[in-house]
Amino acid sequence: MDVIERNYKILEGRMIDLMQRSLNYGKNLIDSELDTGLAVLIKPIVKSFYKYWSDNDAKVGTLEQIKLTLNAAKELLANGGDIREHFDKIINDNFPKYLENDQTNRQCKKSHRNYNKLLEVTKKVFISQVEESILFLKAEGDIRDYDDLTRATFKTKEKAYQALKRQLDFNEEGIIIVESDLSIMHVPVGKKIIIKVLKEGFDLTKKQLIKDLDNAFN
Question: Which one, 50, 142, 171, 193, has the greatest CB density within 10 A?
Answer without folding.
Answer: 50
